[in-house]
Amino acid sequence: MHFLAVLGRARFPGMTTTLITGANRGLGLETARLVEVGHTVYLGARDARRGEEAAGRVGAHPLLIDVTGDASVQAAAKLVRDQVGHLDVLVNNAGIIGPVRPAGQITAADMLTVYDTNVFGVVRVMHAFLPLLQAGPAPVVVNVSSGLGSLAVTADPESHASVVPVWVPGLAYNSGKAALNMVTAQYARAYPAVRINAVDPGHTATDFNGHTGAQSVEEGAEIIVRMAVLGPDGPTGGFFAAGGPVPW
Ligand SMILES: NC(=O)c1ccc[n+]([C@@H]2O[C@H](COP(=O)([O-])OP(=O)(O)OC[C@H]3O[C@@H](n4cnc5c(N)ncnc54)[C@H](OP(=O)(O)O)[C@@H]3O)[C@@H](O)[C@H]2O)c1
């Protein structure tokens, strides 16, 4: 389904407040097109100038938020609380690939750097924004993971082609996304009133991979948007790609 087709499913056009982290470029910026169906989008960026430029391009509100900084995340939550009082949709999208080297050359410091953004960053943002999500009528969280974080796929090389066509090894990135998947599942169990899912956008042409991805950002963002506009009866605690559930 084309990206724009799912936009029509937005639940409360004109009334939905959405925060997307790492949204000044790539998949996050494309997801910010939720403004086109009436979402009030806070476009999260860790650099004020980049955030303002990107927000201006799509009609979103720039929000300074570096997911590796407690003070930055708390200040962002305070701003949304003061301006809106609640948050309807949170898209935890900010992510880094980290060092791409053979496993034996990855250090604990490398792992900490990648986890600080891709795993602990999500926990920082959830900790700060869960009270705001719970203050809304039908809260939704989308954690942007990767099929590379699937233990099932990693353990079964024959499934690589069908689930993750471009499977690459990666001690820090892949294990961090596996951790994010469990973080997602744990939050979903702890907060049954919130729709909390992980998604795999698929190999998408962005700066992240030097634009080698096979998909456009429109195609990659489709599953992010689809899970961001879930109604209160939608699934929670799942892991989804455009083609359906991804094995954990
Ligand atoms: N592209 C793919 O093929 C693919 C596949 C599967 C999953 N994903 C996931 O999709 C998400 C988005 O990836 P992308 O391809 O759009 O990557 P991208 O083009 O490199 O964009 C990453 C975004 O994250 C931001 N970011 C990085 N560290 C941050 C921090 N500490 N605080 C706040 N923002 C931060 C970046 O901000 P700056 O501009 O300031 O650096 C940028 O806006 C990531 O979680 C990635 O793991 C991507």
From TrEMBL:
Classification via Pfam families: adh_short
Top-level taxon of origin: Bacteria
Presence of the UniProt keyword Oxidoreductase in the record: yes
Coiled-coil annotated spans: none
Residue spans crossing the bilayer: none
Keywords for this protein: NADP, Oxidoreductase
Similarity annotation: Belongs to the short-chain dehydrogenases/reductases (SDR) family.
The protein's name in its UniProt record: Short-chain dehydrogenase
Organism whose genome encodes this protein: Plantactinospora endophytica
